[in-house]
Amino acid sequence: MAGSTFGNRISITTWGESHGAALGVVIDGFPAGLKLCAADIQMYLDRRKPGQSKFTTARAEGDEVEILSGVFEGRTTGTPISLMVRNNDQHSKDYGDIATTYRPGHADFGFHEKFGFRDYRGGGRSSGRETIGRVAAGAICAKLLRELGIEVFAYTKSIGDITISDFELGYRDQNPLAMPDSKAADDAAEYLAACMLNNDSAGGVIECVITGVPAGIGDPVFDKLDAKLAQAVVSIGAVKGVEIGDGFKASKNVGSLNNDEFEMNCEKVVKATNHSGGILGGISDGDDIILRAAIKPTPSISKMQHTVNEAGEEVDIEIHGRHDPIIVPRAVVVVEAMCAITVCDALLGHMTDRVEYIKEFYKN
Amino acid sequence: MAGSTFGNRISITTWGESHGAALGVVIDGFPAGLKLCAADIQMYLDRRKPGQSKFTTARAEGDEVEILSGVFEGRTTGTPISLMVRNNDQHSKDYGDIATTYRPGHADFGFHEKFGFRDYRGGGRSSGRETIGRVAAGAICAKLLRELGIEVFAYTKSIGDITISDFELGYRDQNPLAMPDSKAADDAAEYLAACMLNNDSAGGVIECVITGVPAGIGDPVFDKLDAKLAQAVVSIGAVKGVEIGDGFKASKNVGSLNNDEFEMNCEKVVKATNHSGGILGGISDGDDIILRAAIKPTPSISKMQHTVNEAGEEVDIEIHGRHDPIIVPRAVVVVEAMCAITVCDALLGHMTDRVEYIKEFYKN
Amino acid sequence: MAGSTFGNRISITTWGESHGAALGVVIDGFPAGLKLCAADIQMYLDRRKPGQSKFTTARAEGDEVEILSGVFEGRTTGTPISLMVRNNDQHSKDYGDIATTYRPGHADFGFHEKFGFRDYRGGGRSSGRETIGRVAAGAICAKLLRELGIEVFAYTKSIGDITISDFELGYRDQNPLAMPDSKAADDAAEYLAACMLNNDSAGGVIECVITGVPAGIGDPVFDKLDAKLAQAVVSIGAVKGVEIGDGFKASKNVGSLNNDEFEMNCEKVVKATNHSGGILGGISDGDDIILRAAIKPTPSISKMQHTVNEAGEEVDIEIHGRHDPIIVPRAVVVVEAMCAITVCDALLGHMTDRVEYIKEFYKN
Amino acid sequence: MAGSTFGNRISITTWGESHGAALGVVIDGFPAGLKLCAADIQMYLDRRKPGQSKFTTARAEGDEVEILSGVFEGRTTGTPISLMVRNNDQHSKDYGDIATTYRPGHADFGFHEKFGFRDYRGGGRSSGRETIGRVAAGAICAKLLRELGIEVFAYTKSIGDITISDFELGYRDQNPLAMPDSKAADDAAEYLAACMLNNDSAGGVIECVITGVPAGIGDPVFDKLDAKLAQAVVSIGAVKGVEIGDGFKASKNVGSLNNDEFEMNCEKVVKATNHSGGILGGISDGDDIILRAAIKPTPSISKMQHTVNEAGEEVDIEIHGRHDPIIVPRAVVVVEAMCAITVCDALLGHMTDRVEYIKEFYKN
């Protein structure tokens, strides 16, 4: 496996470059019988679509999804679902220096060393457009999860130093920064405007909450639910850290305060607190799953930077063109997508965990 | 795959429970021809062995490794390396309440929900002893890496609120807390003593540095080098967060300061700073790889805690017995091991990245 | 994994249904730097294209391939290669009984039991058109193999009772049955004409030869080179058996005659005979790799057949429409493709088999 | 993956060499709650144990299995089951020429080319003893299958030219050749005695029947049930071919006779005949699954053979020592084991094939 495939039971394989003909994803192992139409997927893609505010690139892409296989008479068939989005607005410009210069903060140098050359147009495969396939696949997994009573939602928790103090999910979709707190969103917009004036960029933190996951989901050892979520989220470009529950704060706590006590509630085992973030020993504990991803500032800035080109010469570079001054708001739906895929995959895994389940299933 | 296997080319499969007959690991895909003897592995196992200071459990285990296969005349053969450690000090005690009570902060409840019952002796498979297989496999990968000029070393960065301010690697192995700073180690020992007096436990942060990794290592998209490192590290029990390079701090920075400029040094492309932590776009950039793992306080404490048992009754529990008041120092070598395995696997992957490499290899 | 992906290092994922919008394949892990254009792939697709003789279905499909990603400036980039073929000639006919009736010899009943419903149009995912993705991927692997001096070629060995007795590879592409023996091809054509007159169909055997594979390729145990070839070939619809080297005949031989003696030839170890078919203990022995696949007669026949429908009623059915009276000739290139993919994957694997190779690779 | 692991949900990893310390297997993903003790496994191992008749090697091995993990209070726990068999009778003899000479018909040369050197003692990893892990894992899968009403049984179908004409399963275990036909067993014994007198060896065909598998099992495309069975069976050393149902004979048939008509029986869809061998389009059709494996003659013979040594010199060799004059009878249980593992894995896969199954499972 060369890393473009994720998931054990539901496995998704993404493909496509920023300025190639198209991008897409193949979802294998998705169960048969889910009602599905392009609109279900488009809804998610529209949330990551560029050009929706002054804080996102002006690249004009409709990002319209086409279902190429795996759906028949409005339902998934159990066979691979192939989804494609054509690239339309590939400026066939002269890439000039960019073609041979390693942009700071980007994968240019790494790709060159790895493959010997690289598709320099818009970052090629390392572009944020690669996430189109993830979001499309995530939309389908999220739809299945909703039918099981599981909701996945993410939002911007902080931008630069500005952190939400209020929480009103409804507000998330009413501001271009995906913050569920109007005051913080206003402050962040101001901070971002200053960054942009300065030809600079900003970063932030995305939080994702998954409700309704029953206890007992996840595989011990290497495929712990949090370990797979960590891989899923860190695999999104620009993510530099991930936390589950109290995360790094837990490292400063003592056991008696960090442990969540169990208690009974309506004949169900529940936890009195949720420092664990819904996962203990890699297995869901029935509580809300909570994680956070740290996103670095967009590396593409129009400020002058010092770097090196393929010929081994030191050069200065200004990256002009269409770049988001912040990746965070558009990455919110990508985090949601990756979490939905990961949880969906783990849920399927649990169905074969006990001999009694298997005997019950095959009893007829 | 049910989660006990990790790695694409070199894949390790661990097995064993805390109080079962033995624990071990099978390493498949390890290349032939590495000089290897039990002492190479024992050296690493001894670093995680219990009973070495007042800050670790008094359980008396020699943790002596036996090489069962894959080594012939002192060299690896290319076939699976099977390693085993017998459990000796399984107190055949009466587990009493523990057997049917869900310990707060532990995986007991999750395992019960997942599998319908559980090996309650010392946490069974979710015990820290599961890491024996990881450390044994990591020792072998680390040995191969050293032959390629790559060093992996981890240390305790902080315990509770006490963070190292000095760095002298040699000191790491001279104090029971694996801190490379004598002043911090003393302060932390004092803090821990207080926790223990209070029947409580503590957490901390482990930092791992990997030097000598060439640029171009790692797979784009889901198996990015940092994504696999994140999975590897978060899969260690008690880890609640992971950061690469500046991590969460990067989210507060601006692009112009977070980007690392490239420059030439002795005809090599190098970076002037290392905010990236040695990985850009999921691919190594030639700089030191730096990551941090947040470890929660040991959940087993002798303080009274409220919880629930399998019968659905609320009960109080005091967990006596042999528990580490802090997991961090013994987990240092586990983090090292997981990083060594991950990097080793990625290094092998790069060898087939280019047609020119393949033609060169098969030219004769 | 749900079975639409094949290969460890180079992994291919196929998607698409007979009468869906399109079919295709994503090839992940293919090395960077191979010169590649659509014509390289089209050449192979044209060999399996329908409508080329009276012995193949009249369905009019150009099967024109589009490269959607993974190729830049005429070379593979190392990132996923996505290939697509649009379906054009999907007769939007009334499927009538076929939609709800289980055709004998087809996967209809199995798909229904597995997924609860099925895309009944032309067999959906179980159609022979699914092999388009395999052939497209195989074309690329075959091109890489040729650059390493490895040739993969298959041909029709027998149709019904008529077996080739002569061998002239050039003749294979000059008759519609892909037989490298003109006399046998004429006889087989006559036999097939009789079958068709009788509203019946025929089967046959395909032989594949792979030359130039060095000794030492393949993984011991479950991924033996012959085991993976067996999976690859039996995974082609309608294949009911596979043999390597002497195959079933070897079971009647004695050891002294079945063993191939080794000898020296120009300072190379070679075998005096090739009963093994180029593979011993699952690893290539340096000789030609030889395998045969048994193909059953096309199950779709216009002769009246007795069967059952989804309502559980016994019914009679005549399958009219566009069906090949024999699958063999068009499957020849599919066998070639699957063998090329399997060998390519195994060749890459060998590059990391020895520590000395790794040290040599990373010595700079 | 380097080929020592097999299976998607239940995955088994074998390890060990002929003359190493031990051999074994780790079974991951096996569901929790199956009653299991060593005797369940020993029963299968005893069927492949050496030294039970004059037709098997005199090597004296008890092949006693030890359960090292994954079983608690007599039931599987859902965590990895680790099984080990110690090697006792490793004659620490002088291997003399064997150590540096490539035995005809063996993997010696391939291993040397692959890994640069090899464990020459008894074939090392390519020894038939490698199958111990397979049989141990197969025993556990077979036990689970029996609880679901599925039986897997294999037997010797032919030895040399002598094929069974009668079938009485009970007789299989009453003759050393595992033939369910007393007349054929007697004839085969005579044939074998002649081979042995001549310092030669023989081959044969094993047939395996799997009853009770419901329709709908298996994954379309590359992991078709027959494709995985083919890989599983061909991965057993010495297997040179595999057939499902009519196999190669089907290639000579016409569609109208090879197709199995469906009919109703007690409100169940059944087939009137079983040319398909229970699998259509890679998915079980509800009928008995039938396959055959061709086993070559034992390559180790004491007759003089011409070959080459590591120094590149042509030499003559006589292989004395403890070798089976025929592999077939002891391989019968290995074929059974591999089929049990493959079917078990596929059965689990089906449980997540439909959204309705998932909703039913998680409805509470």
TrEMBL record, chains A, B, C, D:
<keyword id="KW-0285">Flavoprotein</keyword>
<keyword id="KW-0288">FMN</keyword>
<keyword id="KW-0274">FAD</keyword>
<dbReference type="GO" id="GO:0004107">
    <property type="term" value="F:chorismate synthase activity"/>
</dbReference>
<comment type="similarity">
    <text>Belongs to the chorismate synthase family.</text>
</comment>
<feature type="binding site">
    <location>
        <position position="281"/>
    </location>
    <ligand>
        <name>FMN</name>
    </ligand>
</feature>
<dbReference type="InterPro" id="IPR020541">
    <property type="entry name" value="Chorismate_synthase_CS"/>
</dbReference>
<feature type="binding site">
    <location>
        <position position="48"/>
    </location>
    <ligand>
        <name>NADP(+)</name>
    </ligand>
</feature>
<feature type="binding site">
    <location>
        <begin position="125"/>
        <end position="127"/>
    </location>
    <ligand>
        <name>FMN</name>
    </ligand>
</feature>
<dbReference type="InterPro" id="IPR035904">
    <property type="entry name" value="Chorismate_synth_AroC_sf"/>
</dbReference>
<feature type="binding site">
    <location>
        <begin position="296"/>
        <end position="300"/>
    </location>
    <ligand>
        <name>FMN</name>
    </ligand>
</feature>
<comment type="pathway">
    <text>Metabolic intermediate biosynthesis; chorismate biosynthesis; chorismate from D-erythrose 4-phosphate and phosphoenolpyruvate: step 7/7.</text>
</comment>
<dbReference type="InterPro" id="IPR000453">
    <property type="entry name" value="Chorismate_synth"/>
</dbReference>
<keyword id="KW-0028">Amino-acid biosynthesis</keyword>
<keyword id="KW-0456">Lyase</keyword>
<dbReference type="GO" id="GO:0008652">
    <property type="term" value="P:amino acid biosynthetic process"/>
</dbReference>
<dbReference type="GO" id="GO:0010181">
    <property type="term" value="F:FMN binding"/>
</dbReference>
<dbReference type="GO" id="GO:0009423">
    <property type="term" value="P:chorismate biosynthetic process"/>
</dbReference>
<feature type="binding site">
    <location>
        <position position="54"/>
    </location>
    <ligand>
        <name>NADP(+)</name>
    </ligand>
</feature>
<dbReference type="GO" id="GO:0009073">
    <property type="term" value="P:aromatic amino acid family biosynthetic process"/>
</dbReference>
<dbReference type="Pfam" id="PF01264">
    <property type="entry name" value="Chorismate_synt"/>
</dbReference>
<comment type="subunit">
    <text>Homotetramer.</text>
</comment>
<dbReference type="GO" id="GO:0005829">
    <property type="term" value="C:cytosol"/>
</dbReference>
<keyword id="KW-0057">Aromatic amino acid biosynthesis</keyword>
<protein>
    <recommendedName>
        <fullName>Chorismate synthase</fullName>
        <ecNumber>4.2.3.5</ecNumber>
    </recommendedName>
</protein>
<keyword id="KW-0521">NADP</keyword>
<comment type="function">
    <text>This reaction introduces a second double bond into the aromatic ring system.</text>
</comment>
<feature type="binding site">
    <location>
        <position position="322"/>
    </location>
    <ligand>
        <name>FMN</name>
    </ligand>
</feature>
